[in-house]
Write a structure and sequence with these properties.
Elements: E1 10-11, E2 42-43, E3 67-70, H1 72-76, H2 90-93, H3 96-104, E4 109-112, H4 122-126, H5 155-169, E5 173-178, H6 195-203, H7 229-244, E6 250-253, H8 271-278, E7 286-289, E8 309-311, H9 313-323, H10 330-337, H11 341-344, E9 354-356, H12 366-369, H13 405-424, E10 428-432, H14 464-479, H15 491-501, H16 510-513
Helix pairs in contact: 9-10, 10-15, 13-14
Protein name: Glycosyl hydrolase family 13 catalytic domain-containing protein
Domain Glycosyl hydrolase family 13 catalytic: 77-477
GO biological process, one term: glycogen catabolic process
């Protein structure tokens, strides 16, 4: 049995066994004809009607936008004011307690980590873990029912729409983190769940001289074949559906460089970009690229077309280096603070092309960034070999939790330094959920498989002082247009601005800057 790629809702879970694979375990050359129907989730026919009332997109200008990256469950699972049966769901994101929190820190757009229906890797299931982040999509149209409180099959669609309507009423846009670069069907060894069994060569990039194998620019085993009309149509139909039927306001494209690989190189003139630009629906919403993948030449920060904004990885790296006292970082810090003209002006873009962030779901939380020099991912079951080893972090003198008041005060000050830089830089700030509360993952910088207290926001231990500080700095940004410029500073003013804001010399010791 194969899932329809155009399913609008899916019910059930994958029961991982040999029937989901096209070969007999232990013999990849064999052909397995076991019936997989009993082990597959099923597509659900839905009633598309929903009373949107007077719903309208908030349509915030990029210059006035503050993005909040959040996981549906991680944000809401432990909130004491949300009824237990709603925690971890779309309904919880729309709960007044969450909406009030978001508006209090000036959030204008929530960027939800993947909500497209995804599969838990069989290898993670065997370890008692799960694909918590959700970057393992199997349906580009269906909202995942794991985040639904509905008791009927397909009820997740109505619940998702209700969430969007409520957030719009509060002036909050909904941006989806979408994974069109690969699917949950893995490498040539399977499983076979949907597109592989329908038209393998149309949907996946295959090795030219041996089409049994997949090209992998994503690090997941496969890459979607965006050079084929069927794949392009699927992606564009999906994007239009989420805008027109689900009323979302934009998309963050995971590993977006893969979508520009019609052949092998990343191409700014790729057909996908042309289709997006020409589409009367998709071209009107916010388009955010994660401007890299793991393939050759995949790091493309600053190289996306004018219509696009980008996660600015150079902002993250430079700001981290500056505040941990790395030498000779002031000049580049000035570029990042002033909107990264060196990256975006040459393509006629403006400061808002830069989605600024210090932390995101992938890596340390803000609190861990100032508390750990090294990753501590032992809970992931890979002997601490997974996750990024070079974090540009500084533990302020002690690794992990400490009772030393001096270290804790320095860490508190460092978090404020990062938040101030983020919220007052030119461009669009993105806060990672829980950073304003002092959320920790205890040094785990790769929580992709941890659906538990490691990754959930602990509202009971929120740092209220840090929260109040975040509210104040966000209000400062909102109340003063100088922090929300729509054009770059004249070049002659960059150095002056940098010296005024950061009156220290390159290479000054950490304590001088903090």
């Amino acid at each position: 049995m194969l899932l329809d790629p155009y399913s609008k809702a899916i019910d059930g879970i994958f029961d991982w066994n040999q029937s989901l694979f096209g070969y007999t375990f232990g013999d990849p050359e064999s052909r397995n004809e076991d019936d997989s129907a009993a082990s597959m989730p099923k597509a659900v026919v839905i009633n598309p009607y929903f009373d949107w009332g007077t719903d309208r997109p908030p349509n915030h200008h990029y210059a006035d936008t503050v993005i909040y990256e959040a996981h549906v469950k991680g944000l809401t699972q432990t909130h004491p004011d949300i009824p237990e049966h709603l925690r971890g769901t779309y309904a919880a994101v729309a709960h007044p307690a969450i909406v009030e929190h978001l508006t209090s820190i000036g959030v204008t757009a929530i960027e939800l980590m993947p909500v497209h229906h995804f599969a838990n890797d069989s290898t993670l299931v065997e370890k008692g873990l799960s694909n918590y982040w959700g970057y393992n999509t199997i349906s580009f149209f269906a909202p995942d029912p794991k985040y639904s409180s509905a008791t009927s099959a397909g009820g997740q669609v109505q619940e998702f729409k209700a969430m969007v309507r409520t957030l719009h009423e509060a002036g909050i846009e909904v941006i989806l983190d979408v994974v069109y670069n690969h699917t949950a069907e893995g490498n040539h060894l399977g499983p076979t769940l949907s597109m592989r069994g329908i038209d393998n060569a149309a949907y996946y990039r295959l090795v030219d001289d041996d089409k049994r194998y997949y090209l992998d620019h994503t690090g997941t085993g496969n890459s979607l074949n965006v050079g084929h009309p069927h794949s392009l149509q699927l992606i564009m139909d999906s994007l239009r559906y989420w805008v027109t039927e689900m009323h979302v306001d934009g998309f963050r494209f995971d590993l977006a460089a893969t979508l520009a690989r019609e052949f092998y190189e990343v191409d700014r003139l790729a057909t996908f970009f042309e289709l997006v630009q020409q589409d009367p629906t998709v071209s009107q919403v916010k388009l955010i690229a994660e401007p890299w993948d793991v393939g050759p030449g995949g790091y493309q920060v600053g190289n996306f077309p004018p219509q696009w904004t980008e996660w600015n990885g150079k902002f993250r790296d430079t700001v981290r280096d500056f505040w941990r006292g790395e030498p000779a970082t002031l000049d580049e810090f000035a570029y990042r603070l002033s909107g990264s003209a060196d990256l975006y002006e040459h393509t006629a873009r403006r400061p808002v092309a830069s989605i600024n962030f210090v932390t995101a779901h992938d890596g340390f939380t803000l609190r861990d960034l100032v508390s750990y020099n090294d990753k501590h991912n032992e809970a992931n079951g890979e002997d601490n070999n997974d996750g990024e080893s070079y974090n540009r972090s500084w533990n302020c003198g002690v690794e992990g939790p400490t009772d030393d008041p001096g270290v804790n005060e320095l860490r508190s000050r460092q978090q404020r330094n990062f938040l101030t830089t983020l919220l007052l830089s030119q461009g669009v700030p993105m806060i990672c959920h829980g950073d304003e509360l002092g959320r920790t993952q205890n040094g785990n910088n790769n929580g992709y498989c941890q659906d538990n207290e490691i990754t959930w926001v602990n509202w009971a231990e929120a740092d209220t002082g840090l929260l109040d500080f975040t509210r104040a700095v966000s209000a400062l940004r909102a109340n003063h247009p100088v922090f929300r410029r729509r054009r770059f500073f004249p070049a002659s003013r960059w150095a002056v601005a940098a010296r005024t804001v950061c009156p220290t010399s390159p290479g000054s010791p950490p304590t001088d800057r903090r």
